[in-house]
Amino acid sequence: MIYCRAVSDSTDQPQRVRQLRLVVEAEDFAEAVRFYRDVLGLPEQAAFAGEGDARVVILDAGRATLEIANPAQKRMIDEVEVGRQVAPRIRVAFEVDDTVARTAEATAAGAAEVAPPTRTPWNSLNSRLEAPAELQITLFQELGPQDTTTD
């Protein structure tokens, strides 16, 4: 049984946090930028360089959410998406318009497929990848009631 409780935005409370920024150290900086900016299509917002070859690129990933899951939920998501426990403590999920096409592009660009696009019980099409900067990522497409795409 899947239980869902949606919480609506409260317009009478000021938003205390304005942005979520996930900072990832990448040994192969150029490869990570190429993958996330050029392959996944995250637009570059800013780039900074400093002494000693210090570099950072800030990419716009659209709307950000922080998904906090207990261990049982993390295990259940792994079972649904991959069929076994594989996720590290932190996994990054990107909503895309076409999971099948974006997964093919990502694997052609060097990401390793952990699990192919799979329909989930919450009606999304999710794939799991090992991506640059040592991140495990999920690409997900929200499916409407009329969508019949399957793995």
From TrEMBL:
Annotated ranges, domain VOC: 18-142
Designated name of the protein: VOC domain-containing protein
Coiled coil: none
Gene3D superfamilies the UniProt entry points to: 2,3-Dihydroxybiphenyl 1,2-Dioxygenase, domain 1
Pfam families according to UniProt: Glyoxalase (PF00903)
Classification via InterPro entries: Glyas_Bleomycin-R_OHBP_Dase, Glyas_Fos-R_dOase_dom, VOC_core
Source organism per UniProt: Actinoplanes ianthinogenes
